[in-house]
Structures are given as structure tokens and as C-alpha cells.
């Protein structure tokens, strides 16, 4: 028999914004397929999520690997699971001047932040449009709105994600399927540790948003079918100001915000 249960697929769901999104979906009685790199972290998340009375399937996948997104899709197909909502949350950065950073790490970040996201979006948007229902939430960032010294590649990937989201949304505007772009600012997650960015001024001197608040903003915008949401008033103001500021000036300002704290 065809599986008619409703599922949300969430990458990067074992912690941070992805985990908080998973809790919101579970509260609204969505069954879940949660994806991450560490099985133990996924299992801990699943225990909490299952308390809402929903089914939670964990899949360990390393989306840094070129074929991992297709493999993930095929695993879900093999389980005969229909994905009603796709959330591409998994993402990572690397900190430092582009002259000094590790190229292999940056190519991995491009694979994760762009290639895996595009692959899953392509595969699932086709399914959703064909059956006339579905929603996609792709996590971009306000980083995609400004050039980002000390995180040049990360900012570039998030600029791609937001532009991509808006373009595909325009292409499918005559269908019931929606794509929503979530643009958080700096958020209190494990992102900065993984990016070796803990000594940056943005972390040491800035205010980090609560991932639960960011998830709520993204979830509500997705449910409403909005094209995008910038999470947090300060971030909305920053993006608005950035829209009328030359890119060269934005790069200088962002570089000062993100430089190491001990830099003179």
C-alpha cells in the first residue's frame, strides 16, 4: 500500500536551528525524517521529538560528500516515504582570510551549502509540483546580503542560496508549491565552533539570536507561503541599510565586525 503519512525532511536537524524547526514540526504533528552527520546526536534529538507522538526516522549522512544528497533521496524513496516539506538547514563556514584558509574545507562548504541544497531542492520540487502540494524552506542568511571578509566563501554561498530560492520560486509561482528563504543573523548555535570563529568580534562582542526564535520566524513564514523572512528586527534594519550602501563599504564594515578580537 502507498504510504500516506505526512513527513517533513530536515537536514542539520540534530542541533541549532534545524533541531528547533524539528520541534515545531513535531508539535504540529508532522512525522519527521531528520538528517545529520552524527548518529548519537540524531538519536538524542529523536527521543525528544518522539515525545510529541510522531514518527521520527533518523538518517546519518555526510552531505559534504558529492553523492550524499542523491543517496539520501534514494534511501527515503526506498522507504516509500512522501516528503511534504523539505527543510535544507545543514550548512557550515570556515573563518579566516581567504589567502590563508584551506581550499579543501572551502570546497566542502560549497558542496554542503550549495550542491547538496540544490540537489535535494531539485529532486523534491519536481515531486511536489507533480502532485500539486508541498513546501520548501531553505536556510540562507543575512550574510548572503553583504560581502563577508574573514568568511568570504560562506557569505558567497548564502548569497547563492537566497538568489536561487527567489528564482525557483518565481518559476513555480503558478503552482501550489512554495519556497521560502530564511535569513537569520548570528545565532547561538555550534556554527561558530565548527567554523573556528570563536575569536571573532561577531562572537565575542555581538549579540547572538536564540535559535528557537529564528526557527519560529522561519516556520511561520514557510507555513504562510512567504518568499522570505529576515529573522530579528536588528537584522531587518541591517539588511535595509545594506541595500542602499555600496558593496565596497559593506565589505569594509563587515570585515571590522568579523575580524579577530585581538586585531589592532
TrEMBL record:
Similarity-based family: Belongs to the short-chain dehydrogenases/reductases (SDR) family.
GO molecular function, one term: oxidoreductase activity
CC terms in the record's Gene Ontology section: membrane
InterPro entries registered for this protein in UniProt: NAD(P)-bd_dom_sf, SDR_fam
Origin species: Pedobacter terrae
PANTHER family linked: DEHYDROGENASE/REDUCTASE SDR FAMILY MEMBER 7B (PTHR44196), SHORT-CHAIN DEHYDROGENASE-RELATED (PTHR44196:SF2)
Keyword ATP-binding: no
Entry keyword annotation includes Zinc: no
Name of protein: Short-subunit dehydrogenase
Residues making up the signal peptide according to the UniProt record: none
Taxonomy of the source species: Bacteria, Pseudomonadati, Bacteroidota, Sphingobacteriia, Sphingobacteriales
Keyword tags: Oxidoreductase
